[in-house]
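Lab notebook, bench 4. Still working through the backlog of constructs that have no structural model yet. Next entry is a single chain of 741 residues. Request: give me the structure tokens for it.
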Amino acid sequence: MSLIIRWSFKLNREFMVSGRPFPKNKVSSRSSGVIHRPSGMIRGLRLGVLGIALLSACLIALDRISPPDVGRAYQTSTLILDDQGKLLRGFTTADDAWRLPLRPRAVDPLYLKLLFAYEDRRYAWHPGVDPLAVIRALGQWVRYGRIVSGASTLTMQVARLLEPHPRTLTGKLSEMLRALQLEWRYDKTDILQWYLTLAPYGGNLQGLRAASLAYFGKEPTRLTVAEAALLVALPQSPSHLRPDRYPQRARAARDKVLERMARLGVLSERQVREARQEALPAHRRALPFTAPHLARRLRAADPRQTVYRTYIDGALQQTLEALVRQQPLDSYSNAAILVAENRSHRVRAYVGSADFFAAARAGQVDMIQAVRSPGSTLKPLIYGMGFDELLIHPETLIDDVPTRFGDYSPSNFLHVYHGQISVREALQRSLNIPAVAVLERLGPGRVASRLRQVGLPLHWRDEQVEPGLPLVLGGAGATLEQLVTLYQGIANGGDIAPLRLSTQDRATPPRSLLNGAACWYLTRILEDTPPPDERALPDFLSRPRRIAHKTGTSYGFRDAWALGFDRAYTIGVWVGRADGSPSPGHYGRNTASPLLFQVFDVLPEPADQAPEPPPAGVLRVDSGELPQRLQHFRVHPESWQARTPPLRIDFPVAGTRIELPRREGHLTDLPLAASGGQRPLRWLVNGQPLESSSRRRMTFWTPDGVGLARVTVMDGTGQTASVEVWITSAPDNSSERDHHG
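Model written out:
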């Protein structure tokens, strides 16, 4: 249509715009070189041009009234892609078809070369209908009395695929008109893309990509000559030529394409001979089914999307799914793995269960999002907050003896107690009594509130109003995703940010949970925690990789946990039964921890294995900076509290906004005053000690900028007090004062 309309418009401009293009009643004269046309011929020409113009106008009007419906080309399968754009999992369309979108640039050029040569050699220039092919088909029909070859172009086939209709003469004419419309409205590349997406290949396979994955198990970016020829032939009669059902028919159709390519000179005789010897696919393969839990989660979160681009490393995901399937689990036990990059917070592997289709294991339940008892995995947070509040230090001695905390009497695993040990050893041994003692001093409500503030709320039973001391031993619910986020925050110096599953998850500013010194303490302690049994991982343990890790086991052996991180990655592992039934004898160290180290084994090692230098605020024991109070943590401190006046900060007042004037561009000093406690006093601001530690109860601090400041004072016995204030700036009036002074 585009060529007809443009041609008619051109004739209108040349012959009708002037009103008198040729002289009237002239005759031809060769001598003068002027051509004189009879007036009747001119009128006939004008009428013909006018008719063409009217026909063009009618076609344009019909095009406006009844535009082609291309919606079906965009009703494609929902696709979940990895970080390289490869298919992880797809979902069929509403009409149960595998219809995968495909752009021409993602197709092997060999296939396109064969397609054009076999189906539509003049696709690049015809307006949707190939007039030469129509003339040839009509001539053959007149000569032989039957249809010998069709005249359908690729554009006409797309028109039929967009709007299916009976194969009648009326349907063919409608198809031709639609083809003209498509060429008028859309680009050749768009039309080719729709063919690659909609062409039928047997069963519910539609489009080249679905066929290539189902028959050859690979993307159509690299195809052999035989594969390309078969994919060209199948849409001719997809149900009749399916290679998995009718291999002889499929072979004959493929060889027919190859023979024609040889006659046209598209393929050499050698290429055709080798291609004919290649076997056909004997069965239809299942389409990729990787990271199914993540795929279902993303689709449920935003059903309107058709393509989800994740940060999953496809090769790593497949490796870990195979690794989980190889674990020695009973038929009712399950496992889950989550791997995330520390700096970017991107999730690189997401294994929601050991077997998605295992009904006995409840394999379709996503155990990464399931709320479970976290066991001892929250202990690093409790100790970290103790470090943050200057209640304890890794070398502080703490009593591990049977202790009663009001109505609560916790006990250690296997009821073994160690007497007086360091906080470092208490965390590495995952002892219960010391952790509960530190939590009692912090307050369970404060811990739960801090987690909620950074977006990691714990889950409680409906009848439980306030969190209690069992929180640190698994008395609250958490998910594997929350625990990985928490441990990733420790790896990142205390900054918590949500994990990012796909490119739609934008990076968000992190929120601080712990200070850098507390995280440095925790990392060094957890790196020195003994790994699992050397007999389980003899090869891995011989490598110098530094991994900070912690295990946990919920009450009744229902959940086994292992969390770990190095400089690059944070990994979480859960093993247990989805229905919550116990697995006696299976706990974090002997069940989940070996799997954690196996996952680290397949990840690339960080380039720098050296420990990070200590940040500001770290108290080094060898320099004599550990105060007397931090030398021993008393489980019940009433005795020394009665003899020592409580330490408190008199100025600044907690929660106030302090406006400091500027002098020569710098903020003036802020006085710090305290009462109670025993001197000498040590002051810290934002975790960094001030140079002046004085026997006086007042000192001065020069802020380096505006914002929130946390002021802490610690006395000689180890008592601490902290306040948070906002520092703001007043206008700099120093020059004005100097002028009027």
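Notes after review: Residues 1-35, 638-643, 734-741 have pLDDT under 50 and may be disordered. The first helix runs from residue 2 to 15. Flag for follow-up if needed.
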